[in-house]
Amino acid sequence: MLDQNLRDVFLECGCQVLDQLLPRIVLLPSNREAISRLIKIASSRTLHICATGTGQSFPVNYQPKENQIFLLTTQMNQLLELKHLDASVVVESGILTSKLAERLEGTQLDFPEVLSKYSGTMAGAVLGPDTQGLRHAELRRRILGVEIIDPKGRLLKFGSHAIKNVAGYDYWSFLVGTRGRFGIATRFILNLERMPLLDTVPHPGKRSDSLDNPSEWIYANLCKRLDPDGIFVQ
């Protein structure tokens, strides 16, 4: 059973404790401040935090480490800001991508099908594994900014709504597929303007006759992180 003193500490952090999943300690933080406080407490008590959304990336026979805490972000599931003119949106990391797609229905904004069909949270789509690479390729060209809580409990912000934000490191693209090794993501800023489809772009070894505009083909391939030295347009 969970020690009552430790339970009280978690509750004071702003986290709900899921008793039905004991002896595993599973917490539901309500906001990023709760996550920050929890990380600081876990560090002082040598507790290991494992952040997840729906938990679908874990195998059925997964065995948690000693003193491991599972942190579910599913309560942080709000669409915080929607800018139609800028074609951008700010969402919390625990929002389901399918629910976000429903919220964007009827608008002129472009939310890719590869994201709307993903069954997990936005954080899972960004940080989790992607065997085919299409989801990660789409996200790398659409993420404008990210907020994370680092291992010291500090809130770090990278990027902005500006598309031409070229100052500093492209940290948000670096985080794609890292499985939360560098912090717990709390918010994302996404670019929802219409872009060339990645899955219809020809192979770089083929001619670009299938597209009316070769520049679109080059742009889409660069978004796939292909080597531009290997791209030739005849």
Write structural notes for this entry:
With 234 residues, this protein is an alpha+beta fold. The chain has two domains: 1-72, Uridine Diphospho-n-acetylenolpyruvylglucosamine Reductase, domain 2 (2-Layer Sandwich); 79-194, Uridine Diphospho-n-acetylenolpyruvylglucosamine Reductase, domain 3 (2-Layer Sandwich). 27% of the residues lie in helices and 21% in strands. The protein has eight helices and nine strands. The protein has helices at 4-13, 32-44, 97-103, 113-116, 122-127, 134-142, 171-175, 214-223; strands at 15-17, 25-29, 48-52, 68-72, 79-83, 88-92, 143-149, 155-159, 184-191. Strands 5-6-9-7-8 form a five-stranded antiparallel sheet. Strand 1 (15-17) and strand 2 form a beta hairpin. The protein is elongated and about 65 Å long. The chain starts with a helix and ends in an 11-residue tail after the last helix. The relative contact order is 0.13. One of its GO terms (molecular function) is FAD binding. It comes from candidate division LCP-89 bacterium B3_LCP. This is FAD-binding PCMH-type domain-containing protein. Residues 18-195 form the FAD-binding PCMH-type domain.
